[in-house]
Amino acid sequence: MFRVTTFPNGLRIATAEMPHMTSVSLGLWVGVGSRYETPALNGVCHFIEHMLFKGTKKRSAREISEAVEGIGGSLNAFTSEEATCFHARATHDRFESLLEVLIDMRHGSLFTPADIVKEREVIKEEMAMYCDEPQHLVQELLNATMWPDHPLGRSITGTNMTLDRMHREQLTGYLGENYCTGGSLIVAAGKISHHRVVQAVKPHMKCWPAGPRPNFAPAISRQTAPRLRLVTRKTEQTQMALGVRTCSRHDPRRFAARLLNTILGENMSSRLFQVVREDHGLTYSIYSTPSFFEDTGDIVISAGLEAEKLPRTLRLIFAELRRLAAHPLGKSDLRRAQDYVLGQINLSLESTESQMNWLGEQLLGYGRTFSPALVKQRILTVTGRDIQNAARDFFRPERLSLALVSPLKTDRQLRRLLNSACEQ
Questions:
Q1: Which tens digits make up the pLDDT trace of 184-195?
Q2: 195 in any annotated domain
Q3: Is residue 337 domain-resident?
Q4: Mean per-residue pLDDT over the chain, rounded
Q5: How many whole angstroms separate alpha carbon 277 and alpha carbon 359?
């Protein structure tokens, strides 16, 4: 299903051929994200992402959009902690047009001072929008609490101060030094052959600066007790995010952690949803989400609820964490969790865009591709005891952090609750 070609300069081409589809999804990936940034350049990767849409030697910003949308396609990008991706999708006969636009954006962007000034203000508006959304703000507060004084704890968008200090030399310099062949991928998925993609990319090889993927600061935790951070806001609800540091994407426990999250709070059948919402009616929304990075990871439990219901909700959450660590999972519960994860893998790979993301994330994250069949096989080898052992490893006081955006004015009661719950 997957094929990979590496050119002499280090640039890799990866494809997932899906001949039954009509579309093709194309991604230009770079293995650089916010955790590669210095404090002074916090937000530079996201700023560069924005600037590559603002105009090239060939096209204005409007013409970039029209070149893709005018053929019935879509164009977008994202920046994460460890990667940046510019991606487009259209019918398969338009592949060469998509490729030419993305390469033009990557190598022909002008970064004019006027566009930089305007886009800086656009990003500030984006940051203000997120700040006004308690559900988003609490996640950023949690990151800062779990990873203090580390790039993983800083906002991907940067701050007003760092943005104001970034000018053309910093942006183009960072782009030239870090977006090199060693960390770059071109990934295509859909009704297209690997040979066609390779031949289409060949004429553009000289555009890419050769060089290795840059390094980043390792995530080293010195936490010895639970952490808590409260931001007082006049809101109708309290937004809470409870973070548990887990393991990296390379850790053998990651498959158990994936199933652990499913059992804990990934869906409506999960224990937290059933206990906190269905049995006690304390919240409308409660869920958990896993993340895996190069050298660490986390599971984040999120909920929105009335402030007076928070202590009781936390007690129920901690009870479920202790329950998972105290007892191995039964066979029926394990099988349901495995079937859910296997089904989600199958459903997630139905589209060309999902296949493109699968390839890009694996090649940048592992340096190789894993077939869905292999990943599913690993999921099926996890035992109930493996999940219990993972829960024991992860659900410990020195791995817990709690962030809140709430009308509460003091965290004294919650701090006592957090400490006492972890001691039981």
A1: 999 999 999 999
A2: yes
A3: no
A4: 96
A5: 37
